[in-house]
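Q: Could you write out the predicted structure for this multi-component system? I'm mainly interested in how the pieces pack against one another.
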Amino acid sequence: MSGIPSIRLRLLKWLVGPILIVNLGAAALTYLLAWTPAQLAFDEGLRQDAAALAARVRSGGAGAMGTVAPDNGAGEASWAALHDGAGRLLAGAPQLAAPPRTGLLDARLDGEPVRVAVAEAGGGMRVSLARTTRARQGVQAAIVRSLVLLEVLFSLALVGLVWFSVGNGLSPLARLRARLDARGSADLAPLIDAGMPRELLPVVGAFNALLGRIDAGARAQDEFRANVAHQLRTPLAGLRLQLEWLAARHADDPETCRSLELMLGANERMIRQTNQLLSLERAEPNRFARARLAPLDLSDLVAESIQAFVEQAASRDIDLGFELAPAQVEGDRFLLRDLVDNLVDNALRYTPRGGRVTVGCAALAGGGSVLRIEDNGPGIPPHLRDQVFERFVRLDEGTHGSGLGLAIVRDIASLHGAELTLLDAEGGGAVFTVAFP
Amino acid sequence: MHVLLVEDDAVLADGLTRTLQGHGMQVELAGDGLQADLQLQRNPPQVAVLDIGLPGIDGFEVVRRLRARGDTTPVLLLTARDAVEDRVRGLETGADDYLVKPFATPELVARIRALGRRNAPKTGVLTLGNLVFDSGARRARIGDRPLELSAREWAVLEYLLQQAGRVVSKQQIIDTIAPWGEDLTLNAVEVYVSRLRLKLEGAGLALRTIRGFGYLLEAAPAA
């Protein structure tokens, strides 16, 4: 999160900050509005009490000062004093200083804040009535408490609302991301802009243009590869025939024969690599989407390739057998032939001379079909089993393989939603199974 | 067998010519589509082997014109592209078979032979190894020794000879020799084949069993 600017955080910062400041101002105003009338009411009560006392002093003399109770019964302490015009204390509490003027003023008595009301008692005399401010403080505290509580609640509610609204406003972005996430890794089709908010349309447009350029590049690359492979096939076919003809002509010359055999072997490898490049291209997911799927029988597919298998097996003295039962699958005929060809080729290639390879297919009891290729070769140790399906991985450096065959098998199986597994055969060897849905 | 080969790549055309000649075929060569179209009319072959990618008019067009004339000469298409469209289009246009380059030579020869027999009269004489098989006269011999065969053995061997070099399944054998739904089991086919194998000893033939599938008859490699 650090360093990456976030639209959400930016919006929140610019919405929540000002809202909180405005809220704080409103709270200060509310405090003033609530506190000032209360203050005035308290002051008015005190002023009236002082005026009443002054009236009593005026009619009854200084003796009236004794009628002031030290406690007004509401938890407040009171003091009263009478001073003459020169500021001398005539009666009452000596703690009270001579008042400088009439009206209301603040003072401290016995370490406690008090409010003092001063009234004219006639003849230059002034009555001071001091009262503690406990009730006022109580009221003030209550006002502040309620305000703080309210403000906190309001602020939380506002932040919550803003958070929700920002999230809601950003939801088209989240939907766009979800749409992108849901795509296959090779899906380069343009994004559909229907339902996109106006603000996102330019972004989607730019993105689609980029996708278009990538797609065109990928296509050009595919076509180039396919063209090169196709161009190679005719000369390779010619070379093979010419070499075979030479080999037949010089069958009685062992040295020439050996050299020709090596050339034929190299030619075979080139043919195989070329074919694998092409089937790799066919197995590209974005090509597959355009491919036609049809109901097929695995046993027919195997039978179509059988001639080539039998010749390859014969050349390596391998006992190749079949256990074919009807096995319906839904698939692309050419890709599935590539899958069968590569699995059988792999088995024939890695089984030693004189070995045994069995190709089987069958319908599964619970629906679906399975293709099974079993050999009695060296098998594949468990820790290497994930690796064999990677491109360009060859477990045996001594054999001539492209390292593409099983990667092609894996790609084609996954395109068909089939499960590819590799297990030990009974008595050694490997069993590849492809379970189709 | 007279084969018209239409291929513009000189190396491949030369190799194919020698190879097919080596298998006893008379090969006539055409280098482009228009020439092929002319030769198909002037001197109809038993089988035409046509490359799709040709200068002038392509292989598809040659086949289309051929069929438009009502000519049923069997056509084997050779293609360097194995795109789905090409394969399907080739067969839809009226070609009888196709083979993707680079092909295995025995498979090419077997397919051309199979196509050649399709239009050939049933009375031909088939030879393989030391076996001479005269389907018209219903006589067969190995070298100078006559070969005695039951009717079913005869039918099985005839089919295997027609398909020599190609793997045939037991089911294909049943479908061919008992096409009218006669009751013939896979086991029965195995019995006929094992009897044939005994009787064909010394014929210079290899009758291989493809475990769980069928058989392959071919000339035994010179030992």
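A: Regarding packing and overall arrangement: Chain A has a mean pLDDT of 83.
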